[in-house]
What we know:
The chain is of the alpha/beta class. The protein has helices at about 10-25, 50-55, 95-110, 160, 165-170, 185-205, 205-210, 220-235, 280-290, 320-335, and strands spanning about 5, 70, 115, 130-135, 145-150, 175-180, 210-220, 250, 265-270, 295-300. The protein has two domains: about 5-80, no CATH class; about 100-335, Alpha/Beta hydrolase fold, catalytic domain (Rossmann fold, 3-Layer(aba) Sandwich).
Amino acid sequence: MALALLSASSCLEATENAAARSDSNPENTMNAQPRGNRNRHLTFDASIRDLLSHAAFAGFGRLILPWDDRAYDGTMRLSNISALLPYHSHVNPGDVVTALNRMIDDASDGKTVFYEFYTGAQKQQPARENTGLFFFRGRPGAPFAVISPGGGFAYVGSAHEGFPYAAAISKKGYNAFVLRYRAGQGEATATQDLAAALTYIFRNADMLGVSTDGYSLWGSSAGARMAAAIGSHGVAAFGGDDLPKPSAVVMAYTGHADYSANEPPTFVVVGEHDGIAPPAAMERRIAALRQAGTAVEYHKYRNLGHGFGLGTGTSAEGWIDDAIRLWRTSTQKRK
Length: 335
């Protein structure tokens, strides 16, 4: 599938041309607003350039987008963002833009929306500059979720199955973090980043205003493999602190097979026509978990393939509310 990506020189030229067009075309006035306007909302017609140059995202805007090793066509509109996500289907630009504007509103209110969890000498290791946590606040002192988007470990699909999830979770009062992990370096490295992020959150829970009791891990596709690995083996197994396991793991469309004898309650969703992570592969793990006594809730949705995100406008719409319910129930049972 062709991606809307250019060489660095072509990207720069396209961006400059876009700026010139926005000066002369009244229809592009919104896109030409000053960089310093932190309150400016994005729209479907906003461009990649508008996102990257937005003052609310200064210093980390590139980490909102999926690829670490590509230059982008600055003129591409957010309405076509699905072109950057080849492993994902049913990408809803409305969900993407709404979640981005939520971050803009938080930043405009003076809230920190991005945290680096590698610091000092840790950050000097290769590609760790491509990591961080996007924070969608719920109630102060409420439990938190960490969301690991998918992308086949080649890219990180936060715009589609990270930020929209976090916005929905935080609306229910929970705190939600979206993990930006190192792409292109495989599952082990990505899961180590998740362990490091959890360690950071636990060590800085007071500063962040979150409870560490009853946290949950969410993941889609590749990200679900990461969440499940921590759920099975714990944070310390991947280089983090010796922390409690999550109270629930939410897994969307992944072929992950590994499991342990002591799994957290697990919520699983998949599309019936998923050719990347077929339902049968997921169902084998579900059967094994249930046999071991793990509470599992499983949903298979009609007429859907891989990577459907929130599932807005599809048979999967609303699944995230069901997953939050399972998390809430599992947390209450632990008390």
